[in-house]
Amino acid sequence: xxxxxxxxxxxxxxxxxxxxxxxxxxxxxxxxxxxxxxxxxxxxxxxxxxxxxxxxxxxxxxxxxxxxxxxxxxxxxxxxxxxxxxxxxxxxxxxxxxxxxxxxxxxxxxxxxxxxxxxxxxxxxxxxxxxxxxxxxxxxxxxxxxxxxxxxxxx
Length: 155
Prior knowledge:
The chain contains 1 helix and 13 strands; from the N terminus they run E-E-E-E-E-E-E-E-E-E-E-E-H-E. The strands form 3 sheets. The protein has a 5-stranded parallel beta sheet, with no helix packed on it. The protein has a 4-stranded mixed beta sheet with strand order 1-2-4-6, with no helix packed on it. It is mainly β. The radius of gyration is 15 Å and the shape is globular. The protein has one helix spanning 139-145, and strands at 2-5, 10-13, 25-26, 37-41, 48-49, 62-64, 71-72, 85-88, 94-95, 108-111, 120-121, 131-135, 150-154.
């Protein structure tokens, strides 16, 4: 892990491990309340962002999620009030309750998954978001779950 301090924020880049066994999990509360964390790039190989991993990182505005990600835990990004956009990679199968709850500036969620792969998504996962872009073949399943959101089909 490298930390680079800038004048007003901290940038974290989790770099690849040199050993065959790399980083696969961002653990519970790993960056909980890191108030100066503004950007994070999570590398391929990570499959789980666990419960409250980035909870209340109030300056976090940019998150890169890896293609290998499969599960986003409960409250993983809860209270990340500056996060405005999130792209959910195509192999994610679970997005737990409150994963992005109270992220008041999240206005654009793009889900690159096909409905067959995404087995479990909580209806409260994206509370307080306005636009969710979903695969076009998933409209019936998702329209009921996110009826209070603007849904855009991704062709």
